[in-house]
Specification:
Layout lengths: L2 E5 L2 E4 L4 E8 L8 E6 L6 E7 L2 E4 L7 E6 L4 E6 L8 E7 L2 E2 L3 E6 L1
Parallel strand pairs: 2-11
Antiparallel strand pairs: 1-3, 3-8, 4-5, 4-9, 5-6, 7-8, 9-10, 9-11
């Protein structure tokens, strides 16, 4: 069992930045792939970034703007989001294996 808690969402103007956190408890996630997904209203949930060890992957929509990182000592994964656009507005979810967090809302105003 892994409990995941996302935080750091909020309302930001276009061009701004936010850093999301995914804090895990119940099990160390250091040996797992951790992914960030997002789901805009009325749309499907899509993976936007993942990290396994120090290897990272980014979806085309966020490449060059978002950075995923991990702190294994804190059992936490981060998503630094820069140059935010209104189309980044969504609920952002953290995923490890079959486990999901509750999501955190990110709203980018134009």
């Amino acid at each position: 069992q892994v409990d995941l808690v996302e935080s750091g969402g909020g309302l930001v103007q276009a061009g701004g930045s936010l850093r999301l956190s995914c804090a895990a408890s119940g099990r160390s996630i250091s040996d797992y792939t951790v992914a960030w997904f997002r789901q805009a209203s009325g749309k499907e949930r899509n993976k936007i970034a993942s990290i396994f060890g120090r290897n990272t992957w980014y979806g085309n929509s966020v490449k060059g703007r978002f950075t995923i990182s991990r702190d294994d000592a804190e059992n936490t994964v981060y998503l630094q989001m820069n140059s935010l656009k209104p189309e980044d507005t969504a609920v952002y979810y953290c995923n490890v294996d079959y486990f999901w967090g509750q999501g955190t809302q990110v709203t980018v105003s134009s």
